[in-house]
Specification:
The structure holds 3 protein chains of 3 kinds. Chain A is mainly alpha-helical. Chain A folds into 2 domains: 80 residues, NADH-ubiquinone/plastoquinone oxidoreductase chain 6, subunit NuoJ (Four Helix Bundle (Hemerythrin (Met), subunit A), Up-down Bundle), CATH 1.20.120.1200; 65 residues. Chain A has 8 helices and no strands. In chain A, helix 1 runs antiparallel to helix 2 and helix 2 runs antiparallel to helix 3. Chain B is 72% helix and 4% strand. Chain C starts with a helix and ends in a 13-residue tail after the last helix. By secondary structure, chain C is an all-alpha fold. The chains are: A mainly alpha, B mainly alpha, C mainly alpha. Chains B and C meet through helix 26 of B and helix 1 of C.
């Protein structure tokens, strides 16, 4: 039963993963990624890591995929036509296959010493205690990293926007009528007020 | 005696001070240098009396200079009769010469523009020379030895605006350096063989079992090679006559009384080393004799006053080496001292003449100066007679000692040749005196007058000393020179007079002078000319300095420069272009080619990383 | 069901993600492939934890941190992608070659 579930989840995950790297449509790729992540969540459940499975679904499925979809919309990457792969595609495939071969060899050779072990569940309580007591400091650091990343993302995003405004008009072909500069708008307003 | 190390400190201090601050001192600080050397001179006397009182002393400073592995090199001094005698000579002649320089370095009432530097280097020279004679270890001695050579270079080339002076300085430096290489190798051999730098220790263990006598012999020859360079022994004598391009007081101090005697001093200091090897002693005696004869012969035909004196110096340095080779340690050092005083006086007299005669040095243009320059001519005559070996002047005594030593220690051939050298010595000295001071005054010299008092007084003082210093040989108030200046390990011996040799040397000296009078005493030069005609070839050879300078020049042009050119080509093409530039150019070329693979694309780098990790992982896993 | 199953699956997902990172043109697709690789690592960690035989929670804890870092990374990376899009008009990885020698 467990093995059947594993194969099912593994098949789903692998298929979805192939979909991510193979499809030409970027939105489809994002959806394939969601499927792959869900498959991994299922595997987590099989490993008795229900908490992680939940976190996986919430954070990846609920947050990261949404952000990626937003990015796709904002950058209009979905409208991108033409080649989606680079010239070095065969090399990449060979390199990946090589690495996979190596890893397989290593894992198979190492498998002996783990074969007898069986899955073990970790009680929620233990996990919570470990996470918030033994790993308290790294946990706090991780939250700090998140905060910094958040601020960094905001700064980078904003800086980009201001830079855009200083660009000459010709650089914005999408805006056929030409944008009204904020400064000139302000000036026009001042003029209107008779200041 | 422990404070003897202070003696050179005065000079080093004066040098440092003048080198830094001479621009801000009145008279560029020349009086300071003179004061420093006078202080050193005064400081010698307590050391001298202390040594007479307590005997030979050594003093090592508690702090080491440096150590390298098992070798420890310290600071230390030896105070023995040799040192004290040299200290007295060096400081005394330095004082005299520096005082004299105060007058000599003034031309038409103004100092030479670099007078401060002149006195600074003078101080450095005196200090280095003092350090040389005080040094108790080979390395300190070697350092002082090189410092002395450096000062000689600086002072010969003091008027470096003159091309000949610059060339002469270079020649002196390079020639003595050739010898110095030998000295350095010899010193290193001794240090390696004995595992210490201490001179007394090394000299004491020369005959120990386990000491490789081949190394001792080799180092004896090498050290003597160094002494040959400094003491202008054949065949490294060629620099000494050219060194006369320097200011005349420099010639008096460095190239007559002190630096050129450093080689003799070195052989004396390491006397047991040479005493232990018969072949080295024979070589020293032979080279000394050859040098003496060659120098005397060349002094006879030169027409330049300073060069006559230079060749005379060379000849007398040959005497000293001959004495050392004959085992006459006492005689050699005694002659060193006496010759130093007499020759310094001769040079200073020559300088006085040059000063008066507008730097003229050709003796054919001089004559009859006796009446115009009484003090100078008296001093010169006394010095010349002393070196000719006329009693009771100082060099007579020492030359007699050498004669005894040679007769004692070497075979008759040496004795005969040495007697010939004595005759020649008297002959060329007589010639110089007769041609310069007697005869008729030349019209171009009518305005000549005696030099200023500051130059005349040192001459008078030296003349007085030249008369009396010879008597220190006799046991007056102390045991006599034969007991005082005695080689380490030798028995003291009383000063002795062997009548037959005494008579022989005096007769020969007088004979030489008489011959000089016959040839040069009269106005007419027909006899000399006739002789010159008769021995035209011999005269040619001698007047061309035995063609040695030509031979060296030829060697340098044809051999040294050719080989150097080849080596330079090798250096440029192989070492530089391939060895040094090669890797650089290779890197540049590799970069030029590889830059096209630096696409700036993330994925390309990523691919490289993956392949690298995979390969490394595989290597690790398969245990290669 | 042994550790080996999970290991091999994890390796497969990792290499698929790797291929995507190297071969894809669009920056957003590269980011997605990186997420795949991170997931593969997470799977490995959790599997090791479960099969270790010690009943340790370390695998899961580190997986939590990895997810955290992944979230931060995606946020920052997408901000950079947006900015690239604005300044260059595209997110083609083949055109981002400011490191070119």
């Amino acid at each position: 039963m467990g093995l059947a579930l594993f194969y099912a989840a593994a098949f789903l995950t692998l298929l979805a993963s192939f979909g991510v790297v193979a499809t030409r449509n970027i939105v489809h790729a994002a959806l394939f990624l969601l499927a792959a992540l869900a498959g991994v969540a299922g595997l987590f459940v099989l490993l008795y890591a229900e908490f992680l499975a939940l976190v996986q679904l919430l954070i990846y499925g609920g947050a990261i995929i949404i952000v990626i979809l937003f990015a796709l919309m904002l950058t209009r990457s979905g409208e991108y036509e033409g080649e989606t792969e680079t010239r070095r595609r065969p090399f990449a495939a060979v390199a990946a296959a090589l690495l996979f071969g190596l890893m397989t060899a290593v894992f198979v050779a190492d498998a002996e010493q783990f074969n007898t072990n069986t899955r073990q569940a970790i009680p929620f309580r233990t996990l919570a205690e470990d996470l918030f007591a033994a790993w308290a400091v790294p946990f706090e650091i991780a939250s700090l990293v998140l905060l910094v990343a958040l601020i960094g993302a905001v700064v980078i995003g904003r800086a980009g926007r201001e830079e855009d405004e200083t660009l000459p008009e010709d650089d914005e072909p999408d805006d056929a009528e030409g944008p009204v500069r904020r400064g000139s708008r302000r000036r026009a307003e001042r003029r209107r007020r008779g200041v | 005696m422990e404070q003897a190390w202070l003696i050179p400190v005065f000079g080093f201090g004066a040098f440092a001070f003048l080198a830094l601050f001479r621009k801000y001192l009145p008279g560029q600080g020349k009086h300071l240098a003179v004061l420093a050397i006078i202080a050193a001179f005064v400081a010698v006397w307590p050391v001298l009396f202390d040594m007479l009182d307590k005997g030979v002393g050594e003093h090592h400073f508690p702090r080491d200079w440096f150590s390298a592995g098992p070798l420890e090199v310290g600071w230390g001094i030896i105070v023995d009769p040799l040192t004290v005698a040299m200290l007295a000579l060096i400081t005394f002649v330095s004082v005299i010469v520096q005082v004299y320089s105060l007058g000599y370095m003034r031309h038409n009432g103004t100092d030479d523009s670099r007078i401060g530097w002149y006195f600074a280097v003078h101080s450095l020279f005196s200090a280095s020379m003092l350090m040389l004679v005080l040094a108790d270890n080979l390395l300190l001695l070697y350092v002082a030895w090189e410092l002395v050579g450096l000062c000689s270079y600086l002072l010969i080339g003091f008027w470096f605006e003159r091309r000949s002076a610059a060339e002469a300085a270079k020649k002196a430096f390079v020639t003595t350096r050739i010898g110095d290489v030998g000295l350095l190798i010899g010193v290193v051999l001794l240090i390696v063989e004995f595992g210490t730098v201490d001179i007394i220790e090394i000299m004491g263990s020369l005959g120990d079992p386990g000491v490789n006598q081949a190394v001792v012999t080799a180092s004896a020859f090498l050290v003597f090679f160094g002494a040959m360079g400094k003491s202008a022994q054949f065949p490294l004598h060629v620099w000494l006559p050219d060194a006369m391009e320097g200011p005349t007081p420099v010639s008096a101090l460095i190239h007559a009384a002190t630096m050129v005697t450093a080689g003799v001093f070195l052989v004396a200091r390491l006397f047991p080393l040479f005493d232990a090897t018969d072949s080295a002693q024979m070589a020293i005696a032979s080279i000394g004799l050859v040098t003496a004869l060659m120098g005397a012969a060349m002094a006879l035909v030169m027409t330049d006053l300073k060069r006559i004196l230079a060749y005379s110096t060379m000849s007398h340095l040959g005497f000293m080496m001959l004495a050392l080779g004959a085992g006459g340690y006492t005689a050699a050092i005694f002659h060193l001292l006496m010759h130093g005083i007499a020759k310094a006086m001769l040079f200073l007299s020559a300088g006085s003449i040059m000063h008066a005669a507008h730097e003229e040095t050709d003796i054919r243009k001089m004559g009859g100066l006796r009446k115009r320059m009484p003090i100078t001519s008296a001093a010169f005559t006394i010095g010349a007679l002393a070196l000719a070996g006329i009693p009771p002047l100082n060099a007579f005594w020492s030359k007699d000692e050498i004669l005894l030593a040679v007769a004692d220690g070497l075979n008759p051939v040496f004795v005969v040749l040495f007697l010939i050298a004595i005759v020649l010595s008297a002959l060329y000295m007589g010639r110089a005196v007769l041609v310069v001071f007697f005869g008729k005054l030349k019209p171009e010299n009518l305005d000549i007058h005696e030099s200023p008092r500051i130059m005349a007084w040192p001459l008078a003082l030296l003349a007085g000393l030249a008369v009396v210093t010879g008597f220190i040989a006799l046991p007056i108030g102390y045991e006599g020179i034969g007991t005082f200046l005695v080689a380490p390990g030798d028995k003291p011996h009383a000063f002795e007079v062997v009548p037959i040799w005494l008579v022989a040397s005096v007769v020969l000296a007088l004979g030489g002078l008489a011959l000089a009078y016959l040839l040069y005493g009269k106005e007419d030069t027909s006899r000399v000319d006739a002789l010159r005609e008769r021995f035209a070839r011999a005269h040619d050879i001698v007047a061309n300095r035995f063609y040695m300078d030509h031979a060296y020049q030829w060697t340098i042009d044809r051999v040294v420069l050719k080989v150097s050119g080849l080596l330079a080509r090798f250096d440029r093409k192989v070492v530089n272009d391939v060895g040094v530039n090669g890797p650089g150019l290779g890197a540049v070329e590799a970069g030029r080619r590889l830059r096209y693979h630096v696409t700036g694309l993330f994925a390309d780098y990523g691919l490289g990383i993956v392949v690298g990790v995979a390969v490394l992982g595989a290597l690790l896993w398969f245990g290669v | 069901m042994t550790l080996l199953h999970f290991q091999l699956l994890s390796a497969a997902i990792f290499c698929i993600g790797l291929y995507g990172v190297l071969a894809r043109r669009s920056a957003v697709l590269v980011l997605m492939s990186i997420e795949l690789m991170l997931n593969a690592v997470n799977l490995q960690l959790v599997a090791f934890g479960a099969f270790s035989g010690f009943g340790t929670s370390t695998g899961q804890v580190i997986a939590v941190f990895v997810i955290t870092i992944a979230a931060a990374e995606v946020g920052l990376a997408l901000a950079i992608v947006m900015r690239l899009f604005r300044s260059r008009g595209g997110v083609n990885m083949d055109e981002i070659d400011v490191m070119r020698g």
